[in-house]
Design brief:
244 residues, alpha/beta, CNF1/YfiH-like putative cysteine hydrolases, six-stranded mixed sheet, 21% helix
């Protein structure tokens, strides 16, 4: 099993992080180590996949918070593991509680405040990006947990790259032209860079942001809905602060 790690978090021994990848457990595993209940996968298999992945990270599925992602700007604060409801960002100050973000081309962003000891996970597709869910999460960290930009460390997980993300005019017209490349009657949109720029605009130092260059569409071992369509599974990125 290949797990994608974030170098930015390796300097913090208290942080656990990993992102799952495609992994065919047996010949009947159509979605190749899928983590989501929202696609047509067997629930027992999803439960088993989650258990194996979390266990590999040193966590239990009972202690990982997850959400039903709806491409919104809704942010939840979790004090326990399990389902927190419909949202697209989760914050927790609780040690031993992981945050899971589901991905298959959309941008996953993982945040650690090294001073206030709080973590956050954000799911930001083009809709969430337009609604600035990442910026709103940063503002909520600041308001509720006294987080300062200079204390935040961030990992932007692999997502679909601009060259592979074609959108129509109805989507393109919602974004600044600097993030668009015209192609005949459509456009190529750079969702990941928009989120990166939100972090910079918030005042987080560039040296404290790791922006993955991996493209989910190009890398065959990463789940991609654009590439695999109805046969695409979903990955989990998980961040947690270890208990003492």
């Amino acid at each position: 099993m290949k797990i994608i790690k974030a170098k930015i978090f390796t300097q913090f021994p208290e942080i656990v992080f990993g992102m799952s990848t495609k992994f065919k457990i047996d010949k009947n595993d159509k979605f190749q180590f899928n983590m989501s209940f929202s696609i047509n996968d067997e629930s027992e298999r999803v439960e088993s996949n989650r258990h194996l992945f979390f266990e590999t990270l040193g966590l239990s599925k009972e202690n990982v918070a997850y959400q039903t992602q709806i491409h919104s700007d809704i942010i939840k604060t979790a004090g326990y593991g399990g389902k927190v409801g419909d949202s697209d960002a989760i914050i927790t100050p609780r040690k031993g509680i992981g945050i899971a973000i589901s991905m298959a081309d959309c941008v996953g962003i993982f945040i650690y405040d090294k001073v206030e000891k709080v973590i956050a996970g954000v799911h930001s597709g083009w809709r969430g990006t337009k609604q600035e869910i990442l910026k709103k999460t940063l503002l909520q960290l600041q308001a509720d947990f006294d987080s300062s930009p200079e204390n935040l460390y961030v990992y932007i997980a692999p997502s679909i790259s601009q060259k592979n993300y074609e959108v129509g005019n109805e989507v393109a017209e919602q974004f600044d032209g600097e993030y668009l490349i015209p192609t005949s009657d459509k456009y190529l949109l750079d969702v990941s860079r928009i989120n990166y720029d939100m972090l910079i605009d918030f005042g987080i130092p560039k040296s404290q942001i790791e922006h993955s260059e991996l493209c989910s569409f190009d890398e065959s071992y990463i789940h991609s809905f654009r590439r695999d369509k109805n046969e695409s599974g979903r990955a989990f990125g998980v961040i947690a602060i270890k208990e003492n």
